[in-house]
Design goal:
This protein is α+β, with helices and mostly antiparallel strands. 15% of the residues lie in helices and 36% in strands. It has 5 helices and 13 strands. Strands 1-2-3-6-5-4 form a 6-stranded antiparallel β-barrel. A hairpin with a 5-residue loop joins strand 4 and strand 5.
């Protein structure tokens, strides 16, 4: 018997208020090599276009307004604007960053519109399991894509904590920092990188496992230096 597809409509509607679009005003005097670290195939023309207005995504993790994203989304930012799915905008500040695992924690003023997502357990993910990615690809905010977990513990030769979730859910430049969601609506990863020769999706994307993120959030909240090893995603 052929099983029915999951109801992605209801799931996407439930998640949307918790996923934010992040735009940053960058310091034009600083090089943006970190942008290509997050999406390493981004060509020089694309990198130049993002020089003054960085684009990325993030997701709310508590009612205090803390938002998880990638470090390369907010690195070198002189101003950060967060936009909710209903168009409401906030100014955000960086609470903590860890370039070695490409994670950052930012915060907006506490607001009743902030709906936190539930963090799942990436260790329990199975290859072939459905996942949803939501992000801001090429500035097209709140784009939803669907795929499966293609592989776990993918090592890309980038460091000791080189332990990515691989997915074929389409992600592109601007999707960085967005959540990878399982069918229960829980975050299982943070979209971070793609493997591509063209700068666009080729069906191979990578996410930081949420189990690592959960271990790092307390450290980032306290603005303490990380003790993790080098990852360099």
């Amino acid at each position: 018997a052929i099983s029915e597809l999951p109801d992605f409509v209801i799931l996407a509607q439930r998640i949307a208020p918790s996923v934010v679009n992040i735009s940053t005003t960058l310091n034009p005097a600083l090089p943006r090599s970190s942008l290509r670290q997050g999406f390493p195939s981004l060509d020089e023309k694309g990198a130049e276009a993002f020089q003054h207005r960085g684009l990325g995504a993030g997701f709310v993790i508590d009612h205090d307004g803390h938002i998880v994203t990638n470090n390369h989304v907010v690195e070198d930012a002189v101003a950060i604007t967060v936009k909710l799915s209903d168009g409401t905008e906030f100014q955000a500040k960086v609470i903590g960053r860890d370039p070695r695992i490409d994670l950052a924690l930012i915060k907006v003023t506490k607001n009743e519109k902030m709906v936190p997502l539930v963090l799942g357990e990436s260790d329990k993910l199975q290859v072939g399991e459905w996942v949803i990615a939501i992000g801001n690809p090429f500035g097209l905010r709140n784009s939803v894509s669907v795929g499966i977990v293609s592989a776990k513990r993918r090592q890309l030769g980038l460091g000791v904590f080189d332990d990515f979730i691989q997915t074929d859910a389409p992600v592109n430049p601007g999707s960085s920092g967005g959540p990878l969601i399982d069918l229960s609506g829980r975050v299982v990863g943070v979209t971070t990188a793609i493997a591509s020769d063209t700068g666009a999706n080729t069906g191979i994307g990578f996410a930081i496992p949420i189990d690592l993120v959960k271990r790092m959030v307390p450290t980032l909240k306290e603005k303490r230096a990380s003790r993790t090893g080098w990852l360099g995603a």
